[in-house]
Specification:
With 444 residues, the chain is mostly helical. It is built from 19 helices and no strands. It has a single domain, classed as Growth Hormone, Chain: A (Up-down Bundle), CATH 1.20.1250.20.
Length: 444
């Protein structure tokens, strides 16, 4: 491989390492707070509302955030996003130490973090496009997935082991330390701003007009719109299941945090294996196949299989398999977008992409909690109506209703992928749309 193709990978790797540490701390906090919320309430709705409060601000703020990302210093925006997350963690720590922490405090904190987090995804994704060569997009995206997977392996285990000796306060302190390290690395990193493309110059306007530019850009390209719609359907269906995954396991194991940590760690390990394989392999030649086939397999052999399982080995195996597939799905999708969209437009386009892909997720989460508590769980008690039909499939009793929701979510996710494959512009998106560096030269 030519030397210039590796240019920028050193800086990216340093930033990636800092984000990996931060993700480890964040994962530990999320695990600890999941256990705390379940012990306080014993209801899936409370956990679902935390997800809703985290996602909703991202959706509402994303278009404006994307326009700001394309105008402002992307390094500064990533630092501000990390600082906001640190302030939220510090607030929870102080409330916990004072004995005043309540569930509604978490709703406000995650909404605050989510608002600033709307800048993180477009800024981070667009930064990759100016730091590394196009030939390294898939490898860099694989590393991003790998960071989340490594956190998924070690964060639940570390939190489960440390929860007794250092408590929730200690875990929150670890989160703050890892986040501070990530910020320091960002401060030291040299991140260039993108060159102006012809499309970028043409799209210059007021901030509000630029905030809407991403919509027009995507809608005008049927292949990218189809890819986005497929992910919208996939995210809605999988969120319906994932929202009740942790409470389902806790309900079926008498709140055994160790079992939950092992399932989450198995998922993280699968992601690590998938990320390493992707880094060595480079991903499928046809990226769209990696997206569609991966989503279908993830829904069937992952989410649906978790719902059908009734023991740790099955849950862990299914989550491992699903997580091993997802780095290829995410890297394939990310490479398509990074190749087709000019870097100086990626803030606006990627933020709208995030907003539209996740638009239905809060609603799915909001419905999943009450449906689990009021419909599926009561309906899967021995002798109830749903139990008579689906009892042989997922069993009965505590957690069975949520297990059935996981099965439904997985099957619908596979259907979403199949619908995406039927749509011709999506299948042909790589061939029909030219890469951004093959388009017209930048305007003067």
């Amino acid at each position: 491989m030519k030397r210039e193709q590796w240019k920028g990978m050193g800086t990216f790797t340093a930033i990636w390492a800092g984000q990996l540490l931060s993700l480890l701390g964040t994962g530990m906090t999320q695990f600890a707070m999941t256990i705390w919320v379940w012990q306080m309430t014993g209801r899936a709705t409370a956990l679902a509302l935390i997800g809703v409060c985290a996602f909703t601000p991202v959706i509402l703020v994303s278009p404006l955030a994307g326009a700001i990302v394309d105008r402002a210093n992307r390094k500064l925006l990533m630092i501000l996003s990390d600082l906001a997350a640190g302030l939220g963690t510090l607030t929870v720590l102080l409330l916990y130490l004072s004995g005043a922490l309540q569930i509604w405090h978490l709703y406000i904190v995650v909404a605050f973090i989510g608002t600033f987090g709307a800048f993180q995804f477009p800024a981070y994704s667009a930064t990759i496009s100016v730091l590394v060569d196009k030939s390294q997009y898939a490898r860099a995206s694989g590393m991003m997935s790998l960071a989340g997977s490594i956190s998924g392996v070690f964060a639940p285990v570390a939190a489960g082991v440390l929860l007794a000796p250092i408590g929730i306060a200690g875990i929150l302190g670890v989160d703050l330390a890892t986040m501070s390290t990530a910020i320091v690395i960002l401060l030291l990193a040299k991140i260039p701003q993108p060159a102006r493309s012809a499309e970028g110059v043409k799209a210059r306007s007021s901030l509000l007009r630029e905030a809407g530019f991403g919509f027009h850009y995507i809608v005008a390209r049927r292949g990218l719109l189809g890819l986005l719609c497929m992910f919208f359907l996939f995210n809605v269906t999988t969120s319906f299941g994932f929202t009740v995954l942790a409470p389902m396991i806790l309900a079926r194991t008498a709140s055994d945090a160790i079992v939950l940590s092992r399932v989450q760690s198995a998922a993280g390990l699968g992601g690590v294996v998938g990320g390493v394989l992707l880094s060595l392999w480079g991903g499928p030649k046809r990226r769209v196949d990696g997206v569609l086939i991966g989503c279908a397999l993830g829904g069937l052999v992952g989410l649906a299989a978790v719902g059908l399982g009734r023991s740790l080995p099955v849950w862990a195996g299914a989550m491992f398999t699903m997580a091993m597939i997802f780095p290829t799905v995410n890297a394939s999708s990310q490479t398509i977008w990074q190749s087709k969209v000019p870097p100086d437009l990626q803030g606006r386009v990627f933020s709208v992409r995030l907003m539209m892909a996740q638009f239905g997720t809060p609603l799915s989460m909001l419905l999943a909690g009450p449906l689990a508590d009021r419909v599926f769980e009561p309906g899967m008690r021995s002798g109830a109506a749903l139990a008579r039909v689906f009892g042989p499939l997922v069993g009965t009793g505590p957690g069975a209703g949520m297990a059935l929701m996981l099965v439904f979510g997985g099957l619908l996710a596979a259907v979403a992928a199949a619908v995406g494959y039927i749509y011709r512009p999506l299948r042909a998106v790589e061939r029909a749309l030219p890469d951004h560096d093959a388009q017209a030269a930048p305007a003067a």
